[in-house]
Amino acid sequence: MTAAPAAGMLAPARALALAVPALLLAGAWGFQLIGGFYPCEMCHWQRWAHYAALVPAVLAYLASGSRQLSRGLVLLAGLAILASGAIGIFHAGVEYHWWSGLTRCTSVALGGGDPLKALLAAPLIRCDTAAWTLFGVSMAGFNALFSLAGGIAIWALCLTRPAR
């Protein structure tokens, strides 16, 4: 088998490993910057897992000449995406009051000038309250659904494609 077709066998997994965190982060940032929905502490945890997934996903493209290395990097990205999904499940459970959260509520200081005045005027972002829902599913819930589905698909693609 030649190098090009073998490298192409992981192409769908590599594409998903890059697209899933990039699109979910774009959505999160869109909700924040355009919609004014500021993230709580647990929202940031979910984002950090997606940022972490982007690093091996990009490196997998750079290492596409080495099938084993590329596959390992894609699997690592998939693991980080799954971690974000797991955090999303926990966060959604906190929002729906199925269990208690681990954090205190957070606040985002906006604007310049007097830092104390900005901090006192900043909105309080609660981890146990869904800022937005669609059909009863919060943003944390959607992150969990998309992250878990994407992570499972990435792993399934990697593990069902020959790495020769």
List keywords for this structure.
164 residues; mainly alpha; two-stranded antiparallel ribbon; two-stranded antiparallel sheet; 6 helices; disordered N terminus
Can you walk me through this structure?
By secondary structure, the protein is mainly alpha-helical. Helices cover 66% and strands 5% of the residues. It is built from six helices and four strands, in the order H-H-H-H-E-H-E-E-E-H. The strands form two sheets. Strands 1-2 form a two-stranded antiparallel sheet. Strands 3-4 form a two-stranded antiparallel ribbon. Helix 2 runs parallel beside helix 4 (67-95) and helix 4 runs antiparallel to helix 6 (139-160).
Order of neighbouring strands in the sheet with most strands: 1-2
Strand tally, please? Answer: 4
- The proportion of residues in beta strands is under 5%
Biggest pleated-sheet summary = 2 strands, antiparallel
Helical content (DSSP H or I, runs of 4+): 55-70%
Helix/strand order: HHHHEHEEEH
* Annotation field: number of helices: 6
| Structural classification | mainly alpha
Whole-number radius of gyration?
19 Å
On the 0 to 100 scale, the average pLDDT is 85
Cα(first) to Cα(last) distance is: 8 Å
Large-scale geometry: elongated
Question: Nutshell version of this structure?
Answer:
The chain has helices at 3-8, 11-33, 41-62, 67-95, 115-121, 139-160, and strands at 106-107, 124-125, 133-134, 137-138.
List the helices and strands and how they pair.
Elements lengths: L2 H6 L2 H23 L7 H22 L4 H29 L10 E2 L7 H7 L2 E2 L7 E2 L2 E2 H22 L4
Antiparallel strand pairs: 1-2, 3-4
Helix pairs in contact: 2-3, 2-4, 2-6, 3-4, 4-6
